Amino acid sequence: MNPYLVIMRTTKNYSLFLMLRSSVGELFYKKTAKLGLRFFATGLILGNSHFHSLSPSDFFLCNRAYSVLVRDFVLCGGSQHGLQESKALDRSFYSSSTCSGELPKCWNCGGTAPTSIPFLACESCGSVQPRNLSIDFFQIFGLFLLCRERSHDIKDDNLEGKYKDWQKKLHPDLVHSKSEKEKMFAAEQSALVIDAYQTLRKPLLRAIYLLKLGGKHVDEEKTITDPEMLAEMLEMREAVDEAHDSLTLKKIKAEVEEKFETYSRSFSQAFTSGDFDDAIASIERMRYYDRAIEEIRKKL
Amino acid sequence: MLGAAGRRILGLGLGKRAPGAVTAAASRGYHERVVDHYENPRNVGSFDKSDPSVGTGLVGAPACGDVMKLQIKVDDDTGKIVDACFKTFGCGSAIASSSVATEWVKGKHMEDVLSIKNTEIAKHLSLPPVKLHCSMLAEDAIKAAVKDYKAKNSKATGKAETVQTDKVENT
């Protein structure tokens, strides 16, 4: 049995949540965040028989501004203590471009949003659109396409080129003569694209963001006590501290960068296979290596 | 307009070690106590890890990649901490917090230092909220050092120090 998965993600878009809720009946959600509503499907029923529980990050949501081909989809309704009912949804319900709703329209010319790229600016009249909180960074850079999952490996995806393309359409300098409303939209969208670019181009930030999208926050409060890892990091920082010539520093930098790469790959693997403890541990290490590289750069 | 900064640019030193760092740190809003600990570090160093009277606490902060090592030298008969040293790689607040920690633990009984709270360190250094975790790290380092000493010595004497270590773990 092919387990078709629905891509569903955390969203702060309350109206979207309401729309879905009214359309599909009871949505089983596990958590509500203070800032918005997050919901996860807790499982997947394969062929009306087995309940296959999945971690929340396996799911992402399609939104109105961006279409994703959604296949068989099951929602479980009921209380937190058990499943009272389940509804198998009709595949046609989620046809190509709608999530039981219409595509947004341009506020200026009324043109419909495109289905394959995020709706940040209108293709017909060029007007910058209001910011849609449900569009995430990966969508902006076209890294989340049909059937392709968000991944940590984005080496050949021409981030810089796409960034420049977006800024050509959204930059506040282009809206000098436009209305206050559009100037505000441009400022918001431009800032969003900058955030997206800065986050996605750095492997460490990208990794943290990926986990965040999946609902997993890296606990920044808890003190690390792993003696082996800390001893390694202490030694590394001492070596940096004691090195004074650029040759030694560059050598250390190369070594640390290699370690960073190793754990970056380890994160990708852990994330893809759903091992979030391992993913978080990889991030911790990446942060230490990143910090050391920064210290070396300062000295060079 | 030609103040301290101007004099620095012109290469006229202020006659003090690393004047730039002090003014830069002060301008960034660090409290003078933090600057003091950064400029005049006390108790930086290392004890021999394998020395049975030494307890080593090694902790890290996941958020900023800080590493803090705090070591205590304990008098085996009285249980008092006779000396302490630290080595911290992190921001000025982290360095100052661990420096303060080493100063405060000296001369105290190792049970007493377990009650040193991060809030006290933070208050002493006037740490802003965003740097509170640095003082927390120092508190954890103290506890880790005591725990390490006890672990080493309970093995030697065969005494079960489980009650105390549980207390440490529960905080």
TrEMBL record, chain B:
Gene Ontology CC: mitochondrial matrix
Subcellular location: Mitochondrion matrix
Pfam families linked to this entry: NifU_N
Function: Scaffold protein for the de novo synthesis of iron-sulfur (Fe-S) clusters within mitochondria, which is required for maturation of both mitochondrial and cytoplasmic [2Fe-2S] and [4Fe-4S] proteins.
Domain of life: Eukaryota
Matches recorded under CDD domains: IscU_like
The NIF system FeS cluster assembly NifU N-terminal domain, residue ranges: 30-155
A GO MF term: iron ion binding
UniProt record similarity statement: Belongs to the NifU family.
Protein name: Iron-sulfur cluster assembly protein
GO biological process: iron-sulfur cluster assembly
Location of region: Disordered: 152-171
Keyword annotations of the record: 2Fe-2S, Iron, Iron-sulfur, Metal-binding, Mitochondrion, Transit peptide
Essential cofactor(s): [2Fe-2S] cluster
